[in-house]
Amino acid sequence: MMEFNAVQVLDRFSLVTPLGIRFWDGVTNSVIADDSLRVTTYPEVNANLKTQGFSNSQGVYIFRNLPGLRVIENGGGENSATFWSNPPVQLPYVIEGKDNAQRFLPFQISLTLPQHGLFALPCVNVGTPPTPTTLVPLFSAPARAVPGGLAVLHAELWDFNTKNAAAWVIMDVRVPGKTPFQGMSDGQGRITIFFPYPEPTDFAPDSAFDPPANPPNPPPPQQLQGSPLADHQWTLDIHAYYKPPAQLPTLPDLCPTLTQAEATLLADIANKKTLTQVTLKYGQELVLRSTDSSKVNQPSVLWITPAA
């Protein structure tokens, strides 16, 4: 019989990634990590030194061989509290994300590397962040196909002060009983927000129909739900956050963008009437516009006044 000797480990070699990051799509409620989402990072001082991340089996984008951080990768700090409490080097970096499939808006994140564990976005807006917080939210592009069964809001936002497109505005729709659903406008002020329809408001059985306790042929559900679903409409609250910097960035930096102060949406330009509520009808896309826009040659836009 052949004998096997115990394996003796002579040495152990490990690498520590300075950055691991995951991305969350609130429309499909799923982690996004595919070939279409291209995520790169580079030192803040030199955007030419870009390194592309690759995703592992858990949907985490991993980065290796980052300039100036080799001592971190070879530092053996994967289980060392002392190592992470005082890393041998810390450098400012920038992450960029671009979706080749045009499902999501591009973005960037400013951060310091290395990061211990999965990166957590250190900022929140009025909405509830994804759970856990180590999921960085992605925002739908205006050209994204409408997923089946969801409500959709469209708007083209323009800055009332500058008379230009309002880029990187955060807007949220508040459905009763739900946390806010957020969207972001693109560089041309276009915004699309997907969210589930609220529950019907008259879900009780129709009073004109009183079926027996055990009917031989149960009536279709439509007869038990009051008015037809196509007749339902809901009043939703809407908020916008917009305070553009003096120099508008090419890509929105997520934390400064998500923490903009609340702005004012204009329902009526002539009377400066604000827009705080909208009516959603089942099966109809919700397109927001300001009235009297034709006076400024922009008849189909929603005007916004930035935060003071």
How would you describe this structure to a colleague?
- This protein has 2 domains: 20-138, no CATH class; 150-203 and 230-305, Immunoglobulin-like (Sandwich).
- Helices cover 5% and strands 31% of the residues.
- It is built from 3 helices and 19 strands.
- The strands form 4 sheets. Strands 10, 13, 15, 16, 18 and 19 form a 6-stranded mixed sheet that branches.
- A hairpin with a 5-residue loop joins strand 5 and strand 6.
Identify the notable features of this structure and list them briefly.
Immunoglobulin-like, 19 strands, five-stranded mixed beta sheet, 3 helices, mainly beta, six-stranded mixed beta sheet, 308 residues, globular, 2 domains
CATH topology of the largest domain, by name, is Immunoglobulin-like
Order of helices and strands: EEEEEEHHEEEEEEEEHEEEEE
Structural class: mainly beta
Unreliable spans: 205-211, 218-224
Anisotropy-based shape: globular
What is the count of β-strands?
19
CATH class of the largest domain: Mainly Beta
- Return the average pLDDT rounded to an integer: 84
The span between the termini is: 84 Å
Rg over C-alpha atoms, rounded to the nearest angstrom? 25 Å
Can you summarize the main beta sheet? 6 strands, mixed
Supply the number of helical segments: 3
How helical, in percent, are the residues? under 10%
**What portion of residues belong to β-strands?**
25-35%
Tell me which CATH architecture of the largest domain applies here.
Sandwich
Q: What's the number of structural domains?
A: 2
